[in-house]
Design goal:
This protein has 162 residues and is α+β, with helices and mostly antiparallel strands. The protein is built from 4 helices and 9 strands. Strand 8 and strand 9 form a beta hairpin.
Length: 162
C-alpha cells in the first residue's frame, strides 16, 4: 500500500510538472510566433510607419517602364534610374534551378538613393540578391512643383536559368 501511495503521488507530481512544462512551452511558442510576426514586417513597412508618425509624405510612384506621371494634376519630373543594379544569380538558386520574377518594394529619398527595400514576391532563394541590388540602385530625384520628394514603388527583377 505504501508503494502504491508513493506511485500515485509521484505520478501526480509528474503530471503537474508536465502540464506546467507544456504551459511554458506554449507560452514560449506563442512569444516566438509574435516575434516572427513582428520580424515579418519589412524594412519599408517600418520606415513608412516611422515617416507617418513624423507626418512626412511618401508619394507612391512608378519606378520603371513609366510614361509621364501625374500626381494630383501636377507634373512629376525625374524618377528614372540613374543606375539600375542587376542582382547576381545566387549559386544555390542556380543549383536549385530557381527562376522567375522577384518584386522589390523600395523607398527612394529626395536625393534619389534607395533608403529601404523589401521583397514582395518571388522565389525565396532569389529575394535577398534582389533586395541587395535594389538597395544599390539610384534614381534621378522625384520632383513635384520644384520640390524633391520621397517615393515608394517597385522594381522587378527577372531570373532565367541559361
Amino acid at each position: 500500500m505504501k508503494h502504491a501511495t508513493k506511485f500515485v503521488i509521484a505520478t501526480a507530481l509528474f503530471s503537474l510538472s508536465l502540464m506546467s512544462f507544456m504551459g511554458i512551452s506554449q507560452t514560449i511558442a506563442y512569444g516566438q510566433e509574435q516575434t516572427a510576426k513582428k520580424e515579418a514586417t519589412g524594412e519599408v513597412d517600418r520606415l513608412i510607419a516611422e515617416l507617418n508618425k513624423k507626418q512626412e509624405t511618401v508619394v507612391k510612384a512608378c519606378l520603371e517602364h513609366c510614361d509621364s506621371q501625374k500626381h494630383d494634376n501636377q507634373e512629376i519630373t525625374g524618377g528614372e534610374f540613374d543606375e539600375r543594379v542587376e542582382p547576381d544569380y545566387p549559386p544555390i538558386a542556380r543549383a536549385a534551378h530557381a527562376s522567375g520574377n522577384v518584386v522589390v518594394l523600395v523607398i527612394v529619398d529626395e536625393e534619389g538613393k534607395v533608403i529601404a527595400a523589401q521583397s514582395l514576391s518571388g522565389h525565396p532563394l532569389l529575394q535577398a540578391a534582389s533586395v541587395r541590388a535594389a538597395r544599390a540602385s539610384t534614381f534621378h530625384p522625384y520632383v513635384i512643383n520644384g520640390q524633391p520628394v520621397k517615393v515608394r514603388g517597385t522594381i522587378n527583377y527577372r531570373f532565367l536559368i541559361p
